[in-house]
Design a protein that fits this description.
The chain has about 240 residues and is an alpha+beta fold. It has helices at about 5-10, 15-25, 115-120, 140-145, 190-195, 225-240, and strands at about 1-5, 30, 35, 40, 50, 55, 60-65, 95, 105-110, 130-135, 150-155, 155-160, 165-170, 175-180, 200-210, 210-215, 220-225.
């Protein structure tokens, strides 16, 4: 038997916390009856439905994708834009992106059907490092990048201090290549941080997520994560 919020999470519908919200909203039923009991134990043979659609526990799967620019980090898009799901056409499980990358941002993206894993990876308290390489307009130096290391307020929200490495500067073309390490995931956070120090982003690529790196995976390609890689991510998150 499995607690109902865990059952929903393992079906790839939502995290355990979000599953409880679905239950309290009356959107979950068991054997045709609306479920309100958060501690209900799902037994073999029970029919669990979310929003009227029967769900089942899939084997959890985890994929690493090198997302190209021009794709939405979403399962679907009401505007008809290309989504990352089009890059994994033969995956049968109901996977979805862990967090998101902007339409014009490329790089490392994890997809899974494990709601608990998703919550673990995306919750700010777990402080999973994410490394981005940005091509920015202007000359990066210690002086103008220093505010990034002190923490700043972006769109009314405080962001934690970041780490940076200046990879290259090109005075003739007036641009720089900078690697920035953060552990949060606010919308457009990296772009907004660079913009605030006067270095607007021209191109952005996420190259590392926790212990994961792209390691030569071509743009638009994906691979399945192995047990060791998954364990390393989980251990990093739970050790914070």
């Amino acid at each position: 038997m499995t607690r109902i919020n865990k059952y929903i999470a393992h079906a790839g519908i939502a995290s355990r916390r979000k599953a409880e919200e679905l239950i309290l909203d009356g959107r979950v039923s068991v054997n045709g009856d609306t479920m309100k009991e958060l501690g209900y134990q799902v037994a073999s043979g029970d029919i669990v439905e979310v929003n009227g659609i029967a769900i089942y526990n899939e084997e959890p799967v985890y994929y690493l994708l090198n997302k190209p620019r021009g794709y939405i980090s979403s399962v679907s898009d009401e505007k008809g834009r290309k989504t990352v799901m089009e890059l994994l056409p033969n995956v049968k499980e109901r996977i979805y992106p862990v967090g998101r990358l902007d339409w014009d941002t490329s790089g490392l993206l994890i997809l899974t059907n494990d709601g608990d894993f998703t919550n673990l990876m995306t919750h700010p308290k777990h402080q999973i490092d994410k490394v981005y390489v940005a091509k920015v307009e202007g000359m990066a130096n210690k002086e103008n990048l220093r505010p990034l290391t002190l923490g700043m307020t972006i769109e009314g929200k405080k962001v934690s201090p970041a780490r940076y490495e200046i990879i290259k500067t090109d005075r003739e073309k007036n641009h720089s290549i900078v690697a920035l390490t953060i552990h949060e995931g606010q919308n457009h956070q990296v772009k907004n941080m660079f913009a605030k120090v006067g270095l607007p982003v021209q191109k952005l690529n996420r190259v590392q997520y926790g212990t994961l790196a792209l390691e030569g995976l071509p743009a638009g390609q994906f691979r399945r994560l192995n047990k060791k890689e998954i364990s390393q991510l989980v251990n990093q998150a739970t050790s914070k």
